[in-house]
Design goal:
By secondary structure, this protein is mostly helical. It contains 14 helices and no strands. Helix 6 runs antiparallel to helix 8. It is flat, with a radius of gyration of 21 Å. It starts with 19 loop residues before the first helix and ends in a 9-residue tail after the last helix. The N terminus is likely disordered.
């Protein structure tokens, strides 16, 4: 008597068993890292004090919410991701995680983050956290991204909430400084993301996503990158000259944002050629991430120096 063994090779139609790393990938940890950092900086720069355990809880909730929103984004855009070379290997289009599992995972993360934030920290912080999730998942992912080249401009608000949430977790209210921090990230997002979009334009065009370089062309995108970068110079320094931050932050913000604008000049004024490696665009994109880490880090250092009485200034 003989037996026959049939081997089944996993495909997108027969997903492989999900691994914890696949669920971690759904949360876009590279993006969440910057979100958590700006939220932590908002918390540390806020006037007043918070119990370290509660402070950790607030930052954890921000991280869970950001990860859950990212998972919702990948759940909703799984078919789109499958058509783009840059995203085709993500867990859902690659068949490693089912859409239903990704949706349920995202729901648990987002629901738990808002509930814990409300119970442990306060319902104002929880409400802003809920708005940030809705903004990213519904306003940006479902509504703006597939419909308008202004998706990144308006959708930039989604990533601008964390420092505001961190601040409110400490103070319980909204004042000028956290609004300025929100504005800095809001206006930083277009030149940051469009620099990326310039060298992955073909991916967006093939997938039918109306990003600025695809819809309005290279020249218009380059001009807007430069315009936003130049506008960032006075905006990033606003907490200093409006008296809510000290001279250390003021000097650092002018230096950091000035260099950001300098890197944006060749991006804004040049034109692509055949075989272009897009080095200026890649350089601007890489620096833009470092820039935000550095700017918000200096804000915290400035606050520490103020508390120690070494420099003058006041955050409000």
């Amino acid at each position: 008597m003989t037996t026959t063994t049939t081997l089944i090779t996993p495909t997108a139609a027969t997903p492989m068993s999900s691994h914890w790393r696949d669920f971690l990938a759904l949360t876009k940890p590279g993006v969440v890292r910057l979100v958590v950092f700006t939220g932590l900086c908002g918390l540390l720069a806020a006037p007043g004090h918070i119990n370290p355990v509660l402070g950790f809880t607030a930052i954890l909730c921000i991280a869970l919410a950001a990860g859950g929103a990212a998972a919702f984004n990948q759940w909703y855009e799984s078919e789109l991701d499958a058509r783009m070379k840059r995203t085709a290997k993500r867990p859902i289009p690659a068949g490693r995680v089912s859409r239903n599992d990704a949706r349920d995972f995202a729901s648990v993360l987002c629901g738990a983050s808002v509930l814990v934030m409300g119970l442990a920290i306060g319902w104002l912080a929880a409400a802003i956290l809920a708005v940030s999730i809705f903004y990213y998942v519904v306003v940006y992912t479902m509504w703006l991204k597939p419909r308008t080249p202004q998706n990144i401009v308006i959708g930039g608000g989604a990533g601008a909430f964390p420092p505001l949430i961190g601040w409110v977790a400490v103070t319980g209210d909204i004042t000028l400084t956290p609004v300025l921090l929100f504005a800095i990230i809001f206006f930083w997002t277009p030149p940051h993301f469009w620099a990326l979009a310039m060298f992955v334009k073909s991916d967006y065009a093939q997938a039918g996503v109306p990003m600025m370089p695809v819809v309005h062309g290279e020249a218009a995108t380059r001009h807007q990158i430069l315009a936003y970068a130049l506008f960032m110079v006075p905006l990033a320094a606003a907490p200093w000259y409006l008296g809510t931050a000290g001279v250390v932050y003021g000097a650092a913000s002018l230096a950091l944002t000035g260099f950001f604008a300098v890197l944006a000049v060749p991006v804004g004024l040049r034109r692509s050629v055949d075989g272009d490696t897009m080095k200026p665009e890649k350089r601007l994109f890489a620096y833009s991430i470092l820039y935000l880490f550095a700017l918000f880090g200096v804000l915290v250092i400035d606050r520490v120096l103020q508390n120690a009485g070494i420099i003058a200034g006041g955050l409000a």
